[in-house]
């Protein structure tokens, strides 16, 4: 529908008279508003009929306002409907519509402001229309630029709740929510691909509505039509009761908190482990100076189960906690779940802290919330909620708020930072907060991490669950057998739960159940665990992950470097992304060498996944083959026997690969290996010294000096690094530094004749050149040279020096 409307707007811009532009825009405005209102109205009707219990959240919009709407009435109706769908669960439906934005010059002329939301613009347009000939005023005063800008803004801001055109080009669909397909719209449809503008809705017998309308065949051409549809809009059921309940703990007669929490996710007799985590929650609860607690860990570890168990133990008096909150609110932002039926989408809506605040306010308000709750910033909404609580005589220390699955509340770095700030506001003004997240949120909070069970805990859970499910294959299995299956499923609570459910089916063996769970893990467990983390990664970072996953589950530092090189990504940034995206894998250093171990589920998740970057599908088979080839070469080089005067430099594989590549003449590749080796073995001064000498030999003097200086810092009492540093400084013409450092090398034991020759180089490269001092150094060097097997080579170098620099 959005595309149809935008095409017609482009046509309106081509009309030749201002009057025709105004007429076209008015028609498009009525069509847009009507379709938006009908979508929202039918969504409300469908939602209430599917779940009458939601009537308690319905704000009471009179859907009979649809019967014969005028332009101004449609604007008001749209605002009321947006509030209604927000209350019923279509989160943030009106946020974009009510968002204040800078206005273009034509709209500034119309509205008289530089910033406004679309509703304000529409009302200004209607007022101007009423002053014109269309509203029985005086003709003239048209502004076609402003008219077109109005309809463009309306279509753009109403896009989330405009209908979608079905494949038959006649049926319109309500936009899909919660992962479901779009629901067919009953009241409106297209005729030959053209939209309609209805004039009246008339309720008839047999639950029908007669629609009297006009087909908009072109911008200024219409034809009448009458049709009947099921009466979905004009009948509504009645309201139901509130959702909060009063808890009356028998062990604490003076404590009667209002609670909104789920039932236990694990029965008392089945809850396993988490003793340390529960104790930590108890400690946090009694530390009234701590406003926030963060329970974080990989997906499927039982974070939500843990927090809900803690809440029930708190209400049942099974803990040592002294704190007695008067209000407990549980709010989940979970979008998917994974179980025996595979992956299920339970919500596709983006929610945030403002939605939490509105939900709490709605549940405690005796009247429906007005729109002021929906058109403010998250900070302002939190402050409104704090004011409402003050009217209820509820202090911020009396309210415990649980925010579940906060990782779905933010998709990029800016959102994550904003989320942390908003949670701070909520905990500062409204209540103490426990949040669960797969990532470690950017917020100061008491941290509690959940990890996989131990094999013993996995065994304990399977035994408990087997008894509950009356699963004979589990009940009769020995401890070692169950431990084996638990380990094979990484002792992960979510996988063990599904394994137990599968094994409890009639005639199922443990092995077949295990194979079934493995198939399910390969199919969609990765989607459940990693979709949110994947969307947060930048496209080039996804490229790196896909490249690494194509190579193997365990990736060493050199593979990481090769993958980052192909994707043009910094190695440190890649390792940081893996560490921050919990569940993808672990980053460790073994003897100083970086290593990444991907979780098996993540490897399966990436197995057939690709991305499109700059119009190309990645990772390409060619890039994967190149990485594999280079890695094989690296392994070969890294296993070579090093024959160097200082083998202490070549401890790590990358250093040995650097030496071998250099000997084979692969100079650039050698330097890549040297850099990797310095990262793996950063405190090895001998390595930096040999790297510096290799750079020196290729006349890369500036880079060589940097490495040589690092070597002298690490090995201040060794002569070789000072000698290398001196010879590099000599070639750079830094004579004073060179002489000083060569003197230092000599004092530490470097042979005097070698130092004298390098001092000669320093003198001839200085500015101005000092040939006399250079000559004296060479003569001393020749006199002092020992008569050993290296004498001939030394004399040849000294003679060559004299022939080049001292011939005259």
TrEMBL record:
<keyword id="KW-0547">Nucleotide-binding</keyword>
<keyword id="KW-0677">Repeat</keyword>
<dbReference type="InterPro" id="IPR019734">
    <property type="entry name" value="TPR_rpt"/>
</dbReference>
<protein>
    <submittedName>
        <fullName>ATP-binding protein</fullName>
    </submittedName>
</protein>
<dbReference type="GO" id="GO:0005524">
    <property type="term" value="F:ATP binding"/>
</dbReference>
<keyword id="KW-0067">ATP-binding</keyword>
<keyword id="KW-0802">TPR repeat</keyword>
<dbReference type="InterPro" id="IPR050498">
    <property type="entry name" value="Ycf3"/>
</dbReference>
<dbReference type="InterPro" id="IPR011990">
    <property type="entry name" value="TPR-like_helical_dom_sf"/>
</dbReference>
<dbReference type="InterPro" id="IPR027417">
    <property type="entry name" value="P-loop_NTPase"/>
</dbReference>
């Amino acid at each position: 529908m959005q595309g149809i409307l935008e095409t017609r707007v482009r046509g309106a811009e081509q009309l030749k008279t201002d009057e025709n532009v105004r007429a076209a825009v008015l028609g498009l405005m009525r069509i847009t508003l009507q379709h938006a209102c009908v979508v929202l109205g039918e969504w409300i009707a469908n939602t209430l009929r599917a779940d009458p219990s939601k009537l308690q959240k319905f704000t009471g919009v009179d859907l009979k306002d649809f019967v014969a709407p005028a332009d101004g009435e449609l604007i008001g109706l749209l605002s009321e409907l947006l509030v209604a769908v927000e209350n019923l669960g279509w989160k943030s439906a009106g946020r974009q519509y009510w968002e204040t934005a800078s206005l273009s010059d034509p709209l500034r002329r119309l509205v008289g402001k530089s910033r406004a939301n679309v509703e304000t613009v529409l009302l200004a347009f209607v007022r101007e229309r009423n002053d014109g000939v269309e509203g029985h005023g005086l003709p003239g005063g048209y502004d076609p630029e402003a008219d077109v800008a109005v309809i463009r803004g309306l279509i753009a801001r109403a896009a989330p709740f405009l209908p979608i055109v079905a494949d038959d080009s006649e049926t319109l669909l309500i936009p899909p929510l919660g992962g479901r397909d779009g629901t067919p719209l009953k009241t409106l449809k297209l005729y030959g691909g053209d939209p309609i503008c209805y004039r009246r809705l008339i309720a008839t017998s047999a639950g029908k509505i007669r629609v009297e309308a006009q087909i908009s065949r072109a911008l200024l051409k219409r034809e009448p039509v009458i049709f009947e549809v099921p009466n979905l809009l004009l009948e509504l059921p009645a309201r139901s009761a509130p959702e909060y309940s009063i808890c009356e703990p028998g062990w604490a007669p003076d404590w009667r908190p209002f609670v909104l929490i789920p039932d236990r996710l694990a029965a008392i007799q089945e809850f396993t482990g988490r003793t340390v985590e529960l104790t930590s929650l108890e400690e946090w609860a009694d530390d009234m100076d701590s406003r926030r607690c963060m329970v974080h860990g990989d997906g499927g570890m039982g974070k939500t189960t843990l927090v809900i168990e803690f809440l029930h133990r708190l209400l049942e008096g099974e803990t040592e906690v002294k704190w007695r909150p008067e209000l407990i609110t549980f709010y989940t932002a979970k979008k998917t779940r994974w179980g025996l039926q595979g992956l299920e989408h339970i919500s596709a809506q983006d929610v945030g802290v403002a939605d939490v605040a509105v939900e709490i306010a709605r549940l405690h308000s005796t009247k429906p919330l007005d729109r002021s709750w929906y058109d403010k910033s998250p900070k302002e909404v939190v402050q409104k909620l704090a004011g409402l609580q003050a009217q209820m005589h509820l202090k911020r220390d009396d309210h415990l708020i649980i925010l579940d699955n906060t990782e779905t509340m933010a998709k990029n770095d800016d959102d994550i930072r904003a989320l942390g700030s908003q949670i701070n506001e909520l905990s500062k003004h409204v209540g103490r907060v426990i949040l669960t997240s797969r990532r470690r949120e950017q917020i100061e909070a008491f941290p509690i991490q959940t990890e996989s069970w131990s094999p013993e805990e996995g065994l304990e859970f399977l035994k408990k669950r087997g008894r509950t499910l009356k699963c004979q294959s589990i009940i009769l299995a020995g401890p070692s057998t169950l431990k084996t299956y638990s380990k094979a499923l990484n002792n992960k609570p979510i996988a063990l739960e599904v394994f137990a459910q599968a094994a409890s089916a009639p005639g199922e063996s443990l092995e077949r159940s295990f194979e079934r769970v493995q198939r399910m893990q390969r199919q969609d467990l990765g989607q459940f665990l990693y979709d949110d983390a994947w969307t947060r990664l930048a496209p080039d970072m996804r490229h790196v992950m896909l490249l690494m996953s194509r190579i193997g589950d365990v990736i060493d530092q050199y593979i990481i470097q090769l993958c980052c090189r192909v994707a043009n990504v910094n190695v440190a940034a890649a390792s940081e992304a893996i560490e921050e995206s919990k569940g993808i894998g672990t980053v460790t250093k073994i003897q100083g060498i970086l290593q990444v171990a991907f979780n098996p589920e993540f490897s399966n998740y990436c197995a057939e996944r690709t991305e499109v970057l700059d119009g190309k599908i990645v990772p390409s088979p060619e890039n994967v083959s190149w990485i594999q080839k280079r890695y094989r070469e690296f392994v070969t080089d890294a296993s070579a026997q090093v024959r160097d005067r200082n083998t202490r430099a070549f401890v790590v594989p990358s250093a040995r690969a650097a030496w071998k590549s250099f000997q084979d003449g692969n100079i650039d590749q050698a330097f890549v290996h040297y850099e990797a080796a310095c990262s793996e073995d950063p405190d090895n001064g001998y390595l930096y010294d040999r790297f510096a000498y290799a750079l020196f030999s290729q006349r890369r003097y500036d880079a060589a000096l940097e490495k040589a200086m690092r070597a002298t810092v690490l090995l201040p009492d060794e002569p070789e690094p000072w000698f290398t540093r001196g010879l590099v400084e000599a070639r750079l013409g830094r004579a004073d530094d060179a002489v000083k450092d060569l003197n230092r090398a000599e004092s530490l034991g470097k042979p005097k004749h070698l130092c004298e020759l390098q001092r000669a180089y320093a003198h001839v490269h200085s500015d101005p050149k000092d040939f006399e001092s250079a000559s004296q150094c060479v003569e001393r060097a020749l006199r002092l040279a020992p008569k050993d097997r290296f004498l001939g080579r030394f004399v040849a170098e000294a003679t060559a020096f004299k022939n080049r620099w001292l011939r005259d």
